[in-house]
Amino acid sequence: RKGPIMPAYTATDSWSAAITVAAGDIIQNTGRRLLLVCPVTPAADGDAVDLHPDQPGFAFDRATSIRVRSGSRLEGSFKIIRGL
């Protein structure tokens, strides 16, 4: 059996391109910076969910597209865990 696929991403202070996620996929903050995760297009801070470095991440309950940015001017990093 294959394990989960976990592509890694870098978050800047600008919104990322759309990232497609499936129901059950998990986003995990792997850096030291706050991340903003937005399922709305166009992405906006007011519609985003905060994902702190010390949080375990969260799972998506449906397929959607997200955009992610760092909560500061410094880069952050995250993974999307797929296929669990």
From TrEMBL:
It comes from Paracoccus lutimaris. This is Uncharacterized protein. It comes from the Bacteria.
